[in-house]
Amino acid sequence: MIWICFFVFLAACFAAGSTGGLFPPGRWYDQLAKPSWTPPNWLFPVAWTTLYICIAAAGARVAVQPDNALAMAFWALQIALNTLWTPVFFGLHKLRLGLVVLVALWLSVAVAMVMLWSVDRIAGMLFLPYLAWVTVAGALNLSVLRLNPDADADADAEAAPEV
Amino acid sequence: MIWICFFVFLAACFAAGSTGGLFPPGRWYDQLAKPSWTPPNWLFPVAWTTLYICIAAAGARVAVQPDNALAMAFWALQIALNTLWTPVFFGLHKLRLGLVVLVALWLSVAVAMVMLWSVDRIAGMLFLPYLAWVTVAGALNLSVLRLNPDADADADAEAAPEV
Mind telling me which residue stretches traverse the membrane in this protein (chains A, B) (predicted)? Predict the structure, then answer.
């Protein structure tokens, strides 16, 4: 049962992660001014693959245990927000809205971690690297927004790409 | 507890549903040939708002009950796929890949319905309109793909919008 759950949660992570291939950084992102500590592009898929395995494992461990209501609700919330961020940032080039989504994602991951921990400590710990990475991603999104105030699609609605 | 869970699941639905506003149909969709039974544009947000309330209620009812592992895993999977479809179809204009996502969504909703039903019959029934609507959406996506074979962004990679 726990393995079936693991693979179903992993499939949800795959749906979220597929946005990385569908909405790649591309020229727009390459040309943006970025802080000196920006991780190299190749690190993102490596980090996310590792994180998604941890995220799915945490979900599966808690799914098979009682009193998992809030942990499961926040697990679902974080994966929806995780799926949403890439299309908003890399698809629509909405830096400010991307930051809003990332802050919501950070909060949902933080609460999920606490709720998972209350059911199963290992599951809670499996969310720690995720929270750390989303913190870095949030700082990067904020920094890119500050360094490129005119790159936000919402900053100049006329210049926004038509979708 | 069940109310908190309801609002967390509803927040996940809101993240999924926000793609409808972020990636609106627009001129591209308006110009596509569509089958005679295509629902009018205004019906989609009305239907989805109703469905999301049912989907969140089903999730909350089952989250607070024991033996909910697979139901919760498939609830998470369907919301990730639900969030993914709109950016793929309306954002990237990938009709064929959109259909693949919709088939995966249909399967995840169908299995989620069975798993929810096994824990709580009302929760299972709350997923029935969702499955019906995704069936319509899938038939529409297939029909639009057949009627507009050249509209698929993947059909002519050179003409694909840069994102």
Answer: 44-64, 71-92, 98-119, 126-145
